[in-house]
Automatic annotation (TrEMBL):
This is Hydroxymethylpyrimidine/phosphomethylpyrimidine kinase. Pfam families: Phos_pyr_kin. Gene3D superfamilies: 3.40.1190.20. Residues 17-258 form the Pyridoxamine kinase/Phosphomethylpyrimidine kinase domain. InterPro entries: HMP/HMP-P_kinase_dom, PM/HMP-P_kinase-1, Ribokinase-like. The keyword Acyltransferase does not apply. One of its GO terms (cellular component) is cytosol. Residues 251-273 are annotated as: Disordered. It catalyses: 4-amino-5-hydroxymethyl-2-methylpyrimidine + ATP = 4-amino-2-methyl-5-(phosphooxymethyl)pyrimidine + ADP + H(+); 4-amino-2-methyl-5-(phosphooxymethyl)pyrimidine + ATP = 4-amino-2-methyl-5-(diphosphooxymethyl)pyrimidine + ADP. One of its GO terms (molecular function) is ATP binding. It comes from the Bacteria. One of its GO terms (biological process) is thiamine biosynthetic process. Pathway: Cofactor biosynthesis; thiamine diphosphate biosynthesis; 4-amino-2-methyl-5-diphosphomethylpyrimidine from 5-amino-1-(5-phospho-D-ribosyl)imidazole: step 3/3.
Length: 273
């Protein structure tokens, strides 16, 4: 097959969310909406809905590694992302796979769900910082995650820039400190090791932001798989997640999911007009 005909493909290594707003399910929807073939390696199974996480079962690290090997030996991935990794042994297994397969990696350092329920064991933060971040092409912490990774309080844009530099010093080549948890506009700070820029968007007043971090990092991986440079991939992913939030279908009694196929819906509406 010629290079032009080759279909881009991306791998998500993350937890399953039964309500399908976050985790593996959000990642695969994002890949599909962006016309990238999605592969998955599941790290944990959660029983959750828009109100919270009821139960979680962590899979053995060998099974996570076996899933990654199975799909990469056969199909291959142009980019990969991690989400919920749950335990230090899973993080170490994923790091071994990333190094062995030389994956272009986006790390969403998921620590807790929007409901506050933990998705990473506290003792695993050290492995995330020491073992996985040095392998990351891009890392996308939200404010609480950036605070955990740096041990600093972060509120202002200047503090977000300082945190991005400190996380870059841990080995991640590009850092996006996300501002979804800010009180005012959801401005994200991007640092490529040399310069800073801001990813700006209006705040959409909604409670339906379940899985926004998963969707953003999956969109970055999808755009990388499609061949965009990192800065472009991050900017396009910001536009994608903003529209996904704007078109949220309003499901559930808590933090509902976002919408991935608004473009498709709009084109269908245009056809029937
Ligand atoms: N209400 C909102 N309106 C517009 N953009 C938002 C809103 N909330 C979050 N975002 C954007 O969505 C992206 C994800 O950011 P956020 O800080 O919510 O991540 P997160 O906390 O990791 O998400 P998750 O809840 O999935 O863990 C960022 O680009 C952020 O600026
Ligand atoms: C399996 C899984 N992975 C990630 C998240 C984080 O997403 P959010 O913070 O939006 O709940 C989640 N809730 N569940």
């Amino acid at each position: 097959m010629s290079e032009e005909q080759r279909h881009p493909r991306a791998l998500t290594i993350a937890g399953s969310d039964s309500s399908a707003g976050a985790g593996i399910q959000a990642d695969l929807k994002t890949f599909a909406a962006l016309e990238v073939y999605g592969l998955s390696a599941i790290t944990a199974i959660t029983a959750q809905n828009t109100l919270g996480v009821r139960a979680a079962f962590e899979l053995p690290p060998e099974l996570v590694e076996a899933q990654i090997d199975a799909v990469l030996e056969d199909i291959g991935a142009d980019a990969a992302k991690t989400g919920m990794l749950a335990t230090a042994p899973i993080i170490e297994a994923v790091a071994r796979s990333v190094a062995r397969w030389q994956l272009r990696l986006v790390v969403d350092p998921v620590m807790a769900a929007k409901s506050g329920d933990p998705l990473l064991r506290p003792e695993a933060v050290a492995a995330l910082r020491g073992v996985l971040l040095p392998l990351a092409e891009v890392v996308t912490p939200n404010l609480p995650e950036a605070e955990m990774l740096t041990g600093r309080h972060i509120e202002t844009l200047e503090e977000m820039r300082e945190a991005a530099r400190a996380i870059h010093d841990l080995g991640a080549r590009h850092v996006v400190v996300k501002g979804g948890h800010r009180l005012d506009a959801p401005i994200d700070v991007y640092f490529d090791g040399t310069g800073f820029s801001e990813l700006r968007a209006e705040r959409i007043e909604t409670r339906h932001t379940h899985g926004t971090g998963c969707t953003f990092s999956a969109a970055i991986a999808a755009f990388l798989a499609r061949g965009l440079a990192v800065a472009e991939a991050v900017a396009e992913a910001k536009r994608y997640v903003t529209e996904a939030i704007r078109h949220a279908p309003g499901l559930g009694h808590g933090h509902g999911p976002t919408e991935h196929f608004w473009q498709w819906k709009q084109s269908k509406e245009a056809q029937t007009r």
